[in-house]
């Protein structure tokens, strides 16, 4: 019997099935430092223990997206090894900050299945939860992927499509315990703009750009223990290119959005996201944002903004889709998230 | 007087000479995190403090090979600066796990000398020991290198060839105190295969591959404070290529072997190893393994496997040498080691 | 109103103005480990907690230059975003070592202003201080940059040129509390050369070289949260090259000087420095040093050396300027600093 992991095929999934993913991971100051080396991350709450304490947290947490990547990376061998497309995200919520010393693991429940009409593949919906060493859920999100069938004769399962919220409501968002922005230091954070300064519909060109190198995206993707061949093996694709992990683009885009959104400190909700076009080494990534919605929260001094974050490789900002409704070729990422901002 | 280190030449070594190597090093979570960024390392015992505690250790140790590289790196200025070839390893044993906070140093004893018949170089055998801040030996191994003479008129020393075991016996292996695999969690570790599932002669193609970038091998090699010119200075070799540190290939190969050997948690013995051909940036490394032997141990639930680990740059798996008995040109590494596996 | 930071222009500075820079940063073992991966750093005092304790410090500090880069990086958005040239450094002093767990912030005072005769730009002099979480100054230095005017009609300020010492006097240097080199272990440090072994005028060719990769300088520069476009965005300059942060060259040069200056443990003074020519990916950096002065200190066993450190990309060592008094084209860096050495 072959000892290597062949991955699951469409016919291997069952509604309600729970998959406990392998390789728990303890994080330390090392992961925090690497995140700052890999991305131009400057949000003060994740950079300074003192700043984090000044807003009611015990110390600076691991970047929210680093937590996401660590939880996500564990799911790859079980969920997306034989995936032909990563179709979407929904209902992503950060429930507890992750701190140095925490050990993360993750598990996924199959919540939807629908075989494609061609009979060769199907769509698998999972809800993934990341938990810490105390068994507390730190993060959960839904993802759906198209997965190949191995046995084309395997019977199609009854189609089950989960009801997923297109957008999280403000009351769905979980504010970290103790978070208090009433003594927020705007000078240390880097910009004066408050929650009230952002208007729905406002667009921001974040100006800065980063040209990606192979070594960088591989270091990052390995750090999250996401070992999908296509990111590392230049002989795997016919064109000899290594596809950059979509999460690398998300983190790069979020970090680049600091310039104009320095006070968008925490990410607490992921409404959806599309990897519109593949990203490769040599691409120069630039980003723009749009304010989609605003909401108050019960936490002192804390407001929420729903933001669109778009990463492009060249092209003018604020252009997203063509007349055909499809993403323009230079668009890499279209992300819809909720963030916490001082009022 | 020149203040830079010219390195030792063959005539500078004496049997019984002990060289205390410079630059002790304290390790932290930073080195652990970097190891995960540099290699696709996923063995659970080194990734999770919780998993390590579940098998009787106080926390996740530094990867065994990282400990090896740190100890090895210190020897380079004293042993291999004027080496023309790295000939072999033997009797490598890991005696104590290395944890964040430990400070490592190393020393080498000259245990063999033999001048070559051409009178221009000779073979130097050393036994190197790595010790922690408590003076405990954490690792020892023998290595032999061919070193140039500077003074060709220096008299040849009496030839002394050490008796080195071609293979460590199971009773030579040191099992970390407290290690207990009876409650081993195979789901968290990533594969169901136990010690008893591996048969002598069984071969495993580990499937995954990594294309190496210059920045990556230099970051890694520097991290171990191995500063041999040939790895860093593109003007040093006539062909303008930077030779990749052999240890980088060892770590990459070991990490890639996770897929099929996820439960080969700890490396406790190094029987031998050959860097069959040089490795350069752009090479895509793939690996295969062969089970060479099996042994029981006195530790609860712990078995030992003697494994061959072969790294290649392309070429079919399981092909090692040609009809002439020489390594095939695509073979990079042929390593023979003992590892601990749950029974 | 645009929310992104346009940077300050020449007319935005006032004598006596104090700018508190954004984004404080807590350092950990992660930054220490990354420094060892990014540079061939081997000075024992920064590598080993045990060695640091043997010379009177509580543990190994963060490398002095890493502290410099962290303090410097915070000033970029406020001081040099619209700079056309980085003109010089003076009166740099390290006042307190920085340890894992410390949180650094920085502020700058405008101490000089002089509009250029063309009316389009001017020179801004700032004194920057880095402080830790206890409000102690850990580092201070002066820097002057040429900054563009935005409003060419803005009136020229009264010219104020600060009096800056061309060289710090030995009595200006601050020796870390408790530092005692009387039990200094030269074997562990890597070289036998003491303070008394270095003669004024002595030159050292440090022999080793490193060829720089794009990924490396970007990782380093981001780690210091210096996000100036020109280092990251290959589309920013007309030639498609990313300019390497001058501080990356400083750190690389200092680390390469280990071979011949292994006992030049701590940097305590920066007298001046010039980035003579731009550095780009692919350059192979080599370094040489010259002893400029020597001084005794009040600390037990501790002497000070004033050193010139020159980084080049090829070319013979010890050649610095042409007949025209200008730096030769292969010279990258000319640094003048004070370092502490065992007597």
TrEMBL record, chains A, B, C:
Pfam families according to UniProt: MC_hydratase
- Superkingdom as given in the UniProt entry: Bacteria
The GO terms this record gives for MF are: lyase activity
PANTHER family, per the entry: BETA-METHYLMALYL-COA DEHYDRATASE, MONOAMINE OXIDASE-RELATED
SUPFAM superfamilies assigned to the protein according to its UniProt record, in alphabetical order: Thioesterase/thiol ester dehydrase-isomerase
State the protein's name: L-erythro-3-methylmalyl-CoA dehydratase
